Amino acid sequence: MVKKTIFALCTCFLLYIIALDPEAKALTFNELPTKQTSKQWSVQVGKAEKGNGLVRPEKGRFHTYSLEVDNIGKDILSAEIYMFRNEPNSTTKFALFGCPDEKDCNKESFERAITLAKQLNEGYPYKFSNFLLAEKASELEVVIVWTQKGSEGRPLKETFTFTE
User: Fold this and answer.
1) Burial class (CB in 10 A: 0-12, 13-18, 19+), 120
2) Do residues 79 and 140 make contact, with C-beta atoms less than 8 angstroms apart?
3) CA–CA dist 96, 55 (Å, integer)
4) For the purposes of burial, counting CB atoms within 10 Å of the CB of 90, is it exposed (0-12), middle (13-18) or buried (19 or more)?
5) CA-to-CA distance for 141 and 125, rounded, in angstroms?
6) What is the DSSP letter of 30?
7) Where are the domains of the chain?
8) How far is Cα 54 from Cα 48, in angstroms, rounded to an integer?
9) Over the Cα atoms of the chain, what is R_g?
10) What per-residue confidence (pLDDT) applies to 98?
């Protein structure tokens, strides 16, 4: 009887330890929108827009959010915005959107960066109305690479990291 009780307690204790995996935290925003700012940028994660043709969250797989990036600093010449999520137990980060045909993207990349900069300089933020974020992700990283007017040819980079 004592052996069965000790065995049962040990089994429960081991199951309790296994269930408390500290790496198994998922990124869920308790309050939306959530915003981070710097001298140059304002980055806000909010609720995803809903509608026909837009992705919907899928329980157990991914959440949906929106992103808004606003230039609140000096005028810029070009800008590129990247979003990444982490993967549990890995140092690799995965892009949330990419380019289906790398050749076409490379040809148009600089033109898009200049067009985005003009939009941001005119006070119109970059809006990504609906993007997927895997439930297993515990970090969202928004990277902005830009060139300042008057300092062409010298890119600047700023990273905004959203965690729980």
Assistant:
1) buried
2) no
3) 14
4) exposed
5) 18
6) S
7) 25-162
8) 9
9) 21
10) 65
Which structure tokens are listed for 5? 């009780």
- Please tell me the pTM assigned to this model: 0.77
Residue 5, pLDDT > 60, answer no
**10 Å Cβ neighbour count for 21?**
10
Torsion angles phi and psi, residue 18, rounded to 5: -65, -40
Residue 100 pLDDT: 56
pLDDT of 134 > 70? The answer is yes
Residue with tokens 């995965």: 94
Length of the chain, in residues:
164
Spatial strand order in the sheet of 34-37: 34-37, 41-47, 62-71, 126-134
- In whole angstroms, what is the distance from residue 23 CA to residue 90 CA? 11
CA distance 83 to 160: 10
Residue of 9 and 91 predicted with greater confidence:
91
Q: What are the structure tokens assigned to 109, written together?
A: 């990349």
| Helix, strand or coil, per DSSP, at residue 48 | coil
Strands (DSSP E) found in the chain: 34-37, 41-47, 62-71, 76-86, 93-95, 126-134, 140-148, 156-162
Comparing CA positions, the residue from 59, 79, 55, 69 lying closest to residue 131 is 55
Output the CATH code of domain 25-162: 2.60.40
